Design the sequence.
């Protein structure tokens, strides 16, 4: 199925515009109707381009037919600049399957493999994807933390700037995810004063001027949401994210896509816990899931405006 049949676009035009105008396109992960509706509502309210991220485990959870049924039911128009992206595709076959389903962008993550093997696998995905006008993201360096079945590592390694030009030239990728100190999950920093490695980012940006760079594991982990979860029976001590001002600074340095997942999970969990505590007799899922969807929408709008800077950035496309 061709992604244009769903009103989707690939990421090339949106990334070029993001670099030119110094903002980042938000890549929010979804895994059910509520998360999808929250993301689309926020993007449409703010007139922001958006990337709908789907991990392999989220695809397994929803099922392929249900997933694409949700996308079709969303009535997306190409003027809205919405991409459907496979997040952390673990194999060539996973990327091919997503492309054949109707995804407009895929990430092949072979970053844990030796450099030359990463190139070989990534190049194979690029060849298939570009034949279908689908954009491809790859990764150099490794992020620590756990967020999903295929995004977990006990160790991290910064991206080596000396590798990036060879990797991009050898693979033909459309964007590159780099490791400069972000991590997956809700426990990204040991202290509040840790800084991202902007020196590494600057070197890479200098070597790849106008080339789209991506930050994974970039949720800010809002303190108010963590506190609400803990207040209503949760157990999330020492959860810390990336400071918004650091993420905003990164958008000035060729970071044109920022991935967010944990913040939406926190918003849903905090609201559901609070709603059920306030209404212990309620057993109507529409009510507490509705509260969660509303809070997720609020979080997405806030991050679009105050971190990504992507509000009112839809290009004029006929």
Sequence:
């Amino acid at each position: 199925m061709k992604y244009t049949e769903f009103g989707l676009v690939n990421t090339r035009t949106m990334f070029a515009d993001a670099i030119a105008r110094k903002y980042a396109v938000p890549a929010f992960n979804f895994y059910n109707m509520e998360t999808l509706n929250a993301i689309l509502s926020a993007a449409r309210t703010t007139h922001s381009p958006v990337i709908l991220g789907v991990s392999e485990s989220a695809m397994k959870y929803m099922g392929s037919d249900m997933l694409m049924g949700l996308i079709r039911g969303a009535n997306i128009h190409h003027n809205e600049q919405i991409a459907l992206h496979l997040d952390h595709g673990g194999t060539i076959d996973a990327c091919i399957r997503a492309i054949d389903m109707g995804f407009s962008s895929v990430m092949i993550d072979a970053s844990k493999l030796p450099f030359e093997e990463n190139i070989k696998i990534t190049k194979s995905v690029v060849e298939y994807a570009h034949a279908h006008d689908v954009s491809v993201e790859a990764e150099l360096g490794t992020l620590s933390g756990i967020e999903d079945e295929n995004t977990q590592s006990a160790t991290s390694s910064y991206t080596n700037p000396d590798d990036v030009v060879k990797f991009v030239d050898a693979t033909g990728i459309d964007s590159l995810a780099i490791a400069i100190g972000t991590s997956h999950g809700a426990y990204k920093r040991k202290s509040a004063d840790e800084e991202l490695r902007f020196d590494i980012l600057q070197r890479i940006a200098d070597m790849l001027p106008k080339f789209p760079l991506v930050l994974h594991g970039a949720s800010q982990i809002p303190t108010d949401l963590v506190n609400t979860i803990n207040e209503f029976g949760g157990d999330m001590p020492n959860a810390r994210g990336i400071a918004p001002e650091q993420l905003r600074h990164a958008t000035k340095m060729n970071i044109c896509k920022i991935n967010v997942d944990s913040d939406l999970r926190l918003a849903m969990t905090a609201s559901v816990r609070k709603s059920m505590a306030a209404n212990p007799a309620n057993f109507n899922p529409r009510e507490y899931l509705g509260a969660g969807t509303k809070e997720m929408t609020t979080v997405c709008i806030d991050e679009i405006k105050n971190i990504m800077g992507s509000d009112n950035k839809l290009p004029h496309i006929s």
